[in-house]
Amino acid sequence: MVSGRRPWAAEVTVLLGLLACLGAMVGVYSAKPEPPGEGASPEELSRYYTLLRHYLNQLTRQRYGKRDIPEALLSKLLYPEDSERPVGSR
Q1: How far apart are CA 16 and CA 80, in angstroms?
Q2: Taking the model in full, what pTM does it have?
Q3: Buried b / exposed e along 53-84 (16+ C-beta atoms within 10 A)
Q4: pLDDT tens digits, 36-86
Q5: Which positions are tagged coiled coil (predicted)?
């Protein structure tokens, strides 16, 4: 009779793959800067606001991808032989 349990090597491989993916995602964004305490010097405040601006720009940056491709261009890329066919919903 065949056991329904996967070999332990496959489980370890999947687990290591998931850990590698999670580790890669951790370094994508920088950590939120810690605000300086009360009575901070102007240089510390300036450095904090610079780090905060960089952090916010990183979080809110434009992401370009598939959604930016117009439907006509996407149609030409997917169906180059049907270039005479009008673009529309199916």
Answers
A1: 41
A2: 0.44
A3: eeeeeeeeeeeeeeeeeeeeeebeeeeeeeee
A4: 989 999 999 999 999 999 988 888 877 666 565 566 666 777 777 755 555
A5: none
